C-alpha cells in the first residue's frame, strides 16, 4: 500500500513522522458519483469511511449492481479455470483504459458462458460415447476370441464323440441319456451370458461374489486388457479386464446384473453369430473414427473460443473488478434527504488536496454534471490513520516495525533508525565477510531480476525473501563490515590492512598464552589482529571484547529509545511525560548501566585490571567500602554514591507525581465547564494530544495509579533484563564463529589432509552444503529473529506505543493486487 502512490504524488518528506492527514467530506451529485469514485480510485488518496455501517449489504443502495458484477466476476473465474485446463495463458496487454460498455460486456459474457457450457457438455457426451465404443470394441475382440476358441474345442469334441460311436463301447462311452441329449437339440440346456469390463483391481472380489451368489452355477472367463482404458463414467484411465459370465436361469441373471452395478462393471451386448460379430466390429470401428473426428473438431472450436476470451480476459477482468469496487465504495456513502446527492467522508493526506480537487473537477466535466462535487475539510478529534510514504527500499524496514504495531498518528517512527540499526545488530551476530559476500550475491540476484520476479507468482518463502531483498542487502553489507572487524573469512583470518603487530617469542608460541607473543610492529590498524585467531587466548580475548561491546551498543540503543520518548512528548506538548517519564528514566538507566559503559571505556583506555563485576555488585551491596585495586579514576566511590542515590530517587519520581498531576489536570479541565468553544477554522486537524488521557467523563485515579505503577516496575526491571538481553549479540557471534571454525577445520582441512582428490571433492561438497544449510540459512534466520526481538522489545518499548491503524486508501491498484 505504502509504495502505491499515484503518479509520484508524494512530495519529499521526513519518514520520522507520518503524513499530516485530514478528514474530508465530499457532497457528490448522483449523476457524477460513479465517475467521481472512479477518478478517486485511479488517484488512490482517500480512505472512505463507511457511513452505512448499520445497514446490511442487501439494504444498501447499490446492492443490485454489486450482485450483477459479482455474477460477471463468477463467469470470468469460470473462463480462467477453463483456460488453465486447456493450457491457455491470458494475454497480458498493458492496460489502456477500456472503452467497453458494461451492459454489452454482461451480455457478451453470458453468451460466451452459455456457448462454452454447451461445448463442454457436448464434448463430455462425445467423449463418454467414444470411451464406451472403445470399451465395446475391446469386448467384441476379447469375447470373440473366447467364443471362437470355445467353438473350435466343441467341434473337435463332437468329432471325437462321433468317431467313438462307430467303434466298440467302453467305459468312456456316453450313457444312453447323454446320447439322447447330444442327438436331440431340444433337450439341451440353453445358457445365457453377460459380457463387459470390470476394473482389474476388483476382478477377484467380483468373481468370488458372483460364484457365491449363484452357488457355483456359473462359468466366468476373464481376459486382461493390455493397456489402461478411459472409464466412460469417471473419465480416468483404469486397468480393466474383459469378462464373460455364463449362467442358467433368470434369477441368476438378475443377481449377476446387480453385482455388475455394485462393482462398476460396464456391460455391453454380444452375439454368438460370428458373421454379426465381424459386422459389429466393423461398425464400431467406423463409429469410433467418426467420434474421434467430431471430438477433435469440438476441441479445436473450444480452444479457439478460449483463445479469443484470453486475448481480452485481463481487460475484462480489470474492468469488472474496478466496477465492483466502485459500487462497494458507493455503498459506503450516505444518500442525502433530497436523494440527489451522495455524502462521503474519508481520510486523505493534506498534500493530496489539490490532486483530489482536480480529480473531482474532471469527473464533473466527464459526466456532464451541471453541479460539481463539494470538497470540504472537517474538524475532528478522531485519531487519523497512519501513512508513511515509503519506497521499495524503505517499505521492508517499515513492515518490520508495523509487524509489532502500526505507529500512532505522527508519533516517532522507529523505522527510520531500523534501516541502520537492524542490519547492524544482525551483522554483529553474523560477523564473517565471507558469509556476508554470499548473502550479498543472493540479494543482488533478487535486485537485478526484480522487474521479472515482481510479475511472477512466487512461492511463500521465495516471495517473502524477495520482498525483503533490500533488508538482506543491508544485512550483507554490514556483515562484511563486521566480518572485516572480526577478521574472519569463513573463520580464516587475513592480514588485510597490515602485517600482524605480534611475533612469536619461541616455537611453543602458538600453544602458549599471549605471553608468548611480542609486539614488534605498530598496532593492527583496523579490526582484530589476525594473530589472535588460533591462539589459546583467542576465546578469552574475543569473549571479553564482544561481551563489553554488546553492553555498550545495548545501552546506546536504549538511550536512543528514551530520547525519542522526549521528542514524542515535545511534539504532543505533553510536559508531564518529559518531567516524570523521560528525565527519571534517563537518570535511572545511566546511573547504573550508563556508568557501567563508562567504566568499560575507561578500562579499555587505561589498560586497568579492575574487576567490573566486583565494582557493580558492591556498588549496591557495600557502597561505602573502599574500592582498592578496582578503582579506575579519582573520587570514584563518591560518584558511585551519587549515582546510586539518583537511581533510588528516580523510581518514586516515575511512580508518584504523574497520577496526582493527571487528576489535578482533569479537575481543572472539567470544573465548571458546561460548554467548550469551537476550534479555530484555521486548524486543519486537532487530535487528542495527551497520550495518557483516560477518558473525558470519568477519571479513575486507582486505574491510573496502577497503570503508572506497572509502567514503573516494567521499566526498572526491564533496564536490567534488557541490558542482559543485549548479551545475545555476544553469544550468537561466538556461536557463529565457532560453528564456522568447526566446519572449516573438521570438514575441509580434514579432507585436504588425506591428499586424495576424491576425498577432497567429497569434503568440499559437504563443506558447501553445511555452510549454506547451517550458516547461511539457519544462522541467518536465527540472527534475524534475535535482531527483531532486540528492536521490538528492548528498543521500541522505551517510546513506541504502536496502537495506530494504517491508511488504506481506495485504489484500483491495491484492489487488483489483493485479488491476485
From TrEMBL:
Q: Which organism is it from?
A: Salix viminalis (Common osier)
Q: Which UniProt keywords apply?
A: Coiled coil, Hydrogen ion transport, Ion transport, Membrane, Transmembrane, Transmembrane helix, Transport
Does Cell cycle count among this protein's keywords?
Answer: no
Coiled-coil-forming residues are: 102-136
For the biological process aspect of GO, one term held by this record is:
vacuolar acidification
Molecular function via GO:
ATPase binding; proton-transporting ATPase activity, rotational mechanism
**TM region(s), chain numbering:** 424-448, 469-486, 549-570, 582-602, 638-656, 757-778
Listed GO cellular component terms? vacuolar proton-transporting V-type ATPase, V0 domain
Give the protein's biological function: Essential component of the vacuolar proton pump (V-ATPase), a multimeric enzyme that catalyzes the translocation of protons across the membranes. Required for assembly and activity of the V-ATPase.
Q: What is this protein called?
A: V-type proton ATPase subunit a
Record localization: Membrane
Family (UniProt): Belongs to the V-ATPase 116 kDa subunit family.
Write down the membrane topology: Multi-pass membrane protein
Amino acid at each position: 500500500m505504502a509504495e502505491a502512490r499515484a503518479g509520484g504524488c508524494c512530495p519529499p518528506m521526513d519518514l520520522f513522522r507520518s503524513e499530516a492527514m485530514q478528514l474530508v467530506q465530499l457532497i457528490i451529485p448522483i449523476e457524477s458519483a460513479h465517475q467521481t469514485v472512479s477518478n478517486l480510485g485511479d488517484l488512490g488518496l482517500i480512505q472512505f469511511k463507511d457511513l452505512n455501517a448499520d445497514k446490511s449489504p442487501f439494504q444498501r443502495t447499490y446492492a443490485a449492481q454489486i450482485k450483477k458484477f459479482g455474477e460477471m466476476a463468477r463467469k470470468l473465474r469460470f473462463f480462467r479455470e477453463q483456460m488453465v485446463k486447456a493450457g491457455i495463458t491470458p494475454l497480458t496487454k498493458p492496460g489502456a483504459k477500456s472503452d467497453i460498455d458494461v451492459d454489452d460486456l454482461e451480455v457478451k459474457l453470458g453468451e460466451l458462458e452459455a456457448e462454452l457450457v454447451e461445448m463442454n457438455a457436448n464434448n463430455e457426451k462425445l467423449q463418454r460415447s467414444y470411451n464406451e465404443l472403445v470399451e465395446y470394441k475391446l469386448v467384441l475382440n476379447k469375447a470373440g476370441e473366447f467364443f471362437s476358441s470355445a467353438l473350435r474345442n466343441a467341434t473337435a469334441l463332437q468329432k471325437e464323440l462321433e468317431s467313438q460311436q462307430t467303434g466298440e463301447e467302453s467305459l468312456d462311452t456316453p450313457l444312453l441319456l447323454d446320447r439322447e441329449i447330444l442327438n436331440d437339440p431340444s433337450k439341451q440346456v440353453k445358457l445365457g451370458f453377460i459380457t463387459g469390463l470390470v476394473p482389474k483391481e476388483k476382478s477377484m472380489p467380483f468373481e468370488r461374489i458372483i460364484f457365491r451368489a449363484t452357488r457355483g452355477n456359473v462359468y466366468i472367463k476373464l481376459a486382461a486388457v493390455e493397456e489402461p482404458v478411459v472409464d466412460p463414467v469417471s473419465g480416468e484411465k483404469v486397468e480393466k479386464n474383459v469378462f464373460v459370465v455364463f449362467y442358467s436361469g433368470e434369477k441368476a441373471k438378475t443377481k449377476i446384473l446387480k453385482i455388475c452395478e455394485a462393482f462398476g462393471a460396464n456391460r455391453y451386448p454380444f452375439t454368438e453369430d460370428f458373421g454379426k460379430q465381424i459386422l459389429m466390429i466393423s461398425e464400431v470401428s467406423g463409429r469410433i473414427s467418426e467420434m474421434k473426428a467430431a471430438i477433435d473438431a469440438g476441441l479445436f472450436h473450444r480452444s479457439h473460443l478460449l483463445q479469443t476470451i484470453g486475448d481480452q480476459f485481463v481487460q475484462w477482468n480489470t474492468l469488472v473488478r474496478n466496477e465492483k469496487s466502485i459500487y462497494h465504495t458507493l455503498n459506503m456513502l450516505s444518500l442525502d434527504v433530497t436523494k440527489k446527492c451522495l455524502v462521503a467522508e474519508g481520510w486523505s493526506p493534506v498534500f493530496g488536496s489539490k490532486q483530489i480537487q482536480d480529480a473531482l473537477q474532471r469527473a464533473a466535466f466527464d459526466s456532464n454534471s451541471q453541479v460539481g462535487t463539494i470538497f470540504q475539510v472537517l474538524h475532528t478529534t478522531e485519531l487519523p490513520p497512519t501513512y508513511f510514504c515509503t519506497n521499495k527500499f524503505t517499505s521492508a524496514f517499515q513492515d518490520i516495525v508495523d509487524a509489532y504495531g502500526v505507529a500512532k498518528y505522527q508519533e516517532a517512527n522507529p523505522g527510520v533508525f531500523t534501516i541502520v540499526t537492524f542490519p547492524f545488530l544482525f551483522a554483529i551476530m553474523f560477523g564473517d565477510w565471507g558469509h556476508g559476500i554470499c548473502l550479498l550475491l543472493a540479494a543482488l540476484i533478487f535486485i537485478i531480476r526484480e522487474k521479472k520476479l515482481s510479475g511472477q507468482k512466487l512461492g511463500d518463502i521465495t516471495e517473502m525473501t524477495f520482498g525483503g531483498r533490500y533488508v538482506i542487502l543491508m544485512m550483507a553489507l554490514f556483515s562484511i563490515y563486521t566480518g572485516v572487524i572480526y577478521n574472519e573469512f569463513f573463520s580464516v583470518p587475513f592480514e588485510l590492512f597490515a602485517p600482524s603487530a605480534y611475533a612469536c617469542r619461541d616455537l611453543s608460541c602458538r600453544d602458549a598464552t599471549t605471553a608468548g607473543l611480542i609486539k614488534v610492529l605498530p598496532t593492527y590498524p583496523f579490526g582484530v589482529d589476525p594473530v589472535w585467531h588460533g591462539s589459546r587466548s583467542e576465546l578469552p580475548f574475543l569473549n571479553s571484547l564482544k561481551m563489553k561491546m554488546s553492553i555498550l551498543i545495548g545501552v546506546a540503543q536504549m538511550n536512543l529509545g528514551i530520547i525519542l520518548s522526549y521528542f514524542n512528548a515535545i511534539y504532543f506538548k505533553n510536559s508531564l511525560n518529559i518531567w516524570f517519564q523521560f528525565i527519571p528514566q534517563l537518570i535511572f538507566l545511566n546511573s547504573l548501566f550508563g556508568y557501567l559503559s563508562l567504566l568499560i571505556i575507561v578500562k579499555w583506555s587505561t589498560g586497568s585490571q579492575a574487576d567490573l563485576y566486583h565494582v557493580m555488585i558492591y556498588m549496591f551491596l557495600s557502597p561505602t567500602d573502599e574500592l582498592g585495586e578496582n578503582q579506575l579514576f579519582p573520587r570514584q566511590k563518591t560518584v558511585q554514591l551519587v549515582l546510586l542515590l539518583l537511581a533510588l530517587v528516580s523510581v518514586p519520581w516515575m511512580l508518584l507525581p504523574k497520577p496526582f498531576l493527571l487528576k489535578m489536570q482533569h479537575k481543572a479541565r472539567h470544573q465548571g465547564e458546561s460548554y467548550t468553544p469551537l476550534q479555530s477554522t484555521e486548524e486543519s486537524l486537532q487530535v487528542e494530544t495527551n497520550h495518557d488521557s483516560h477518558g473525558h467523563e470519568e477519571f479513575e485515579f486507582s486505574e491510573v495509579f496502577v497503570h503508572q505503577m506497572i509502567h514503573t516496575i516494567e521499566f526498572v526491571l526491564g533496564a536490567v533484563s534488557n541490558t542482559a538481553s543485549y548479551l545475545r549479540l555476544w553469544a550468537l557471534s561466538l556461536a557463529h564463529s565457532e560453528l564456522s571454525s568447526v566446519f572449516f577445520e573438521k570438514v575441509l582441512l580434514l579432507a585436504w589432509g588425506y591428499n586424495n582428490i576424491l576425498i577432497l571433492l567429497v569434503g568440499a561438497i559437504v563443506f558447501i552444503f553445511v555452510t549454506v544449510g547451517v550458516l547461511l540459512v539457519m544462522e541467518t534466520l536465527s540472527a534475524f529473529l534475535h535482531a527483531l526481538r532486540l528492536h521490538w522489545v528492548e528498543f521500541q518499548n522505551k517510546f513506541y506505543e504502536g496502537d495506530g491503524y494504517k491508511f488504506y486508501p481506495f485504489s484500483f491498484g491495491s484492489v487488483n493486487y489483493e485479488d491476485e
